[in-house]
Amino acid sequence: MTFAAPDSAARPLYALSPDEYAAWQEDATEMFRAWASAMGFSGASGQVVLLPGPDGQPAAGLVGLGSDEDRARGRFQLASARAALKGGTWRLETALAGEAREEMALGWLLAGYSFERYAAAPAPAAMLIAPEEVNAARLEAIAAGEALTRDLINTPARDMGPAALEATARDLAEEFGASCAVTTGADLAEGYPLIHTVGQAAGETRAPRLIDLRWGEAGPAVTLVGKGVCFDTGGLNLKPGGSMGLMKKDMGGAATVLGLARMIMATGLDLRLRVLIPAVENAVAGDAFRPGDILPSRKGLTVEVNNTDAEGRLVLADALALATEEPTDLLVSMATLTGAARVALGPDVVPFYTDDDRLADRLGEASRRVADPLWRMPFWAPYEEMIEPGIADLDNAPSGGFAGSITAALFLRRFAADARRYLHFDMYGWTPSPKPGRPKGGAGQGARALFDLLSEGL
Fold first, then answer.
1. Which of 69, 224, 238, 336 has the fewest CB atoms within 10 Å, measured from its CB?
2. What is the pLDDT of residue 237?
3. Which terms under GO biological process does the entry name (predicted)?
């Protein structure tokens, strides 16, 4: 997922709206005009036409961008051209500039992703020379972070359990000179009782752990907490088979914070970064936690378990409590947390929660700028009573089914209450069907918008 080296023999790739196509026709050769017309090219979004040279090989290419309205409804239009071009090296010719040009270039890189762990690599893809006026190294770092996230989510739980997630964090720490500490066993049970309890039924080879990565010595302190449930059976509240099929992606929050950490470290942002990942498998065994149990937490709050399938907020709670034990300028949690978020906003748009209006506004602007769709949801205070069961401090799964994403966010906020600024993402982490730059499978969400915000400074 990199750009090609400059090449004087690179073929031109014209990215054109319908109006720009009309202007291009005026300057094009008669053969190119005739060929494009015969192929029905109009500049409509998603159209790709290869223009032949005298030897029959492609000499240039046309990509339709559609109207301004089409571009507002979609993203990464250039990405759809990469597979159609088959191969070769290309140089982008477009009137678009600034953020639009960067989005096109990033979409091209993201379209170069393929998951190759279990199947043969695809044929060599077409390559693009970095367009003028884009920061190629930055875009390549973003694409590499996204590729890491996708790889982690796409890997089946058999090969991506808590130990494998730890190994990934340690490899990342070694690559960028970070530190990585891991808490397991009796220390985990004593210091992080919720993490230990959720993961204890998975057995020794898939034992729960808390991963703690640190990098950077100057700048604002930013702590990223990612839900690392490597597989979620639902526990004793066992999921039906149809709901369990995608549960390898339940560590999508952990995968996303690791991908974001890679972006931050690779570009050398002026931050003191901390990444916390409670890594567990929610399994079924004789020592699994039960509905009706009341569990202690690191923060001292007690939690009544009314559904063992609402385990993500439990493991995040202990990690958030740890994060607030030292000063931090921004605390972020990212998690594939609730089906309610998907019902509300679908798979593409990620709800986020914060009490900081300025932070929300800046994140919304970043979301639009880098085509990483987010939508602010409220920490709705009147719903606090829904997470208070009466016989314990908190309820992990309020009855009634209302406002599931909001009540989960309110639950987490109780454990992040001492943070200066807290930001929570309730993500899906998966692309259900292929789209430009986003193949079916694991997906990072919210990371690019947050990276853009952090790059501008807190």
1. 69
2. 98
3. proteolysis
Least confident of 15-24, 72-81, 284-293: 72-81
pLDDT at residue 50 is higher than 80 = yes
> To the nearest whole number, what is the mean pLDDT of the chain?
96
Catalytic site residue from 299, 313, 414, 438: 313
CATH number of residue 17's parent domain: 3.40.220.10
Q: What is the pLDDT of residues 120-130, one digit of tens each?
A: 877 778 999 99
239 is catalytic: yes
Among 94, 112, 130, give the residue marking a domain's end: 112
Rounded to an integer, the average pLDDT of 286-295 is: 98
172-198 pLDDT per residue, tens: 999 999 999 999 999 999 999 999 999
pLDDT at 145: 98
378 and 254 within one domain: yes
The answer to whether residues 292 and 433 belong to one domain is yes
pTM above 0.90, yes or no: yes
Q: Mark whether 199 and 316 lie in a shared domain.
A: yes
The residue assigned the tokens 């500490």 is: 181
Burial of 180 (0-12, 13-18, 19+ CB in 10 A): middle
Taking residue 246's Cβ as centre, other Cβ atoms within 10 Å add up to 16
The residue among 6, 43, 399, 416 whose CA lies nearest residue 224 is: 416
What's the length of the chain? 458
- The whole-number pLDDT of residue 205 equals 95
Do 168 and 245 fall within a single domain? yes
Q: Which residues are within 8 A (CB) of 400 and not within 5 positions of it... i.e. 6 or more apart? A: 386
Per-residue pLDDT tens for 241-260?
999 999 999 999 999 999 99
- The residue segments making up the domain with residue 17 are 11-112
Same domain, 181 and 319: yes
Q: Tokens 């202690």 correspond to what residue?
A: 296
33 catalytic? Reply is no
Catalytic residue among 138, 170, 214, 239: 239
Q: Are residues 166 and 95 in the same domain?
A: no
